[in-house]
Each structure stands twice: as structure tokens, then as C-alpha cells.
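Give me C-alpha cells for this 248-residue protein.
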Amino acid sequence: MPDTSLRLGVNIDHVATVRNARGGAYPDPIRAAKLAEEAGADGITAHLREDRRHITDPDIEGLMAALTVPLNFEMAATEEMQKIALRHKPHAVCIVPEKREERTTEGGLEVAREENRLAHFIAPLRDAGCRVSIFIAADRKQIEAAHRIGAEVIELHTGAYCDAHAEGHLEQRDRELESLREMSVFAHSLGLEVHAGHGLTYDTVQPIAAFPEVRELNIGHFLIGEAIFRGLTPAVQEMRRLMDEARA
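Here you go.
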């Protein structure tokens, strides 16, 4: 029988955000990653930004050395990041859009307009044994382009759905959710592995977790915030419980 389990990837970027606000070495994102792993995370996600605003190069080195679960290395499609990924050869790389002025990733990657460049960019990563994921909006054109360039995985941006829920725009929330559902089915039909993430909380995770085509959710900011109140281990365990309940 095919594996239909749902994996949880925990993004530890914002442990590094807190560390960098004060300087020094505390709190340690590698310690957070190990705690998340022990609490039931199936993988760890870390985004090395061009400006190093949170995760740093030594963090990536430390994560590669310390983890027994896969590292999902989020990165922009730049020559610098490609070289770093090829040096470390993480289990997976997720190509994301990046702008210096943004607070967080604002949308999905524009694959259709940059199809040729991205195809050449990801080829060495695939040759090195990294699973290549493309972070995109729930848009048929972008999914088709991701498939054509040779990506093995897409990660659907759930931010608009989560924002509509938080703002009480329930009709818009339901439209966004339906679009995510339809595009999960479409991507799966092309043979792509489907992941999802951005902005997910305890209140919004279960409808996405219930999509049988989705194989992995990547969740970070909410879990690190929730850890302030309940601790990281219970925060991850509760997300894991909600995901498993929705999948069942």
C-alpha cells in the first residue's frame, strides 16, 4: 500500500531571530531543532537568507552535524545559496522567493516567468542528491511550470488562507482552502509530492492536514511563539496531535 502518512517539518528560523536580537549564542536554534525532533517532528526547516537576519551559516553546519531527521534547506535561487547547498548536500532544498525589505516570505515563487533559469539552477542540486522543492502559490500555471523544470516537490503557500481566517473573512478563507485542495489534487496527478506551509496555526492546520495528497506541513513561526507559553516540546506535540487527528 502507498504511504499516506503526513510529516511535520518544524521551522526553527525564529529561535535564531530571538538570539540575534540580543547577540550571543542563546537561544540556540540547534537545541530547538533537537527538541522538536524529540517531540515528533519528522524534519527541520531552516531558511538561510541573503541578509542572514536569523539563520546563519554556522547554524546550517550545526544542523547538518546534529540532526538525525532530514534538513529542509530553504534558499533563494542565487549563486551563493546554490554553492552553500552543494557544499552541505542537505536532504532537501526548497527554493523560495526572497526580498530584502519583506518581513517574511510574501508569496510563492514566480516559476512560469523564470522557467529556463530555474531549470538550470536546480539541475546541479538534483544531481547532488538533494530533493528539490519549489514554494509556490496554489496556481495551476505555477504548478505546471514547477513540474516542467524537474522539481520533485512543490510546497503550496497557505498564507492567504491563514490570513483570511485570522481576519474573519470566512468566505475568502473557504475560497482559498478550496483552491489549495484543488491544486493539491492537480499537483499530485502530475506526480509531484505536495507539501504546504506558511502561517499555519492550531486553528488552521486541520483542514490542510486532511488533504490526502499533502505529504508534509512545514510550520515555524506559530510554534516558536507558542513555545513561549507552553514550551517547545508540548507545542510541537499538540501540532502533531492535531495533524494526526485530521488525517485519521
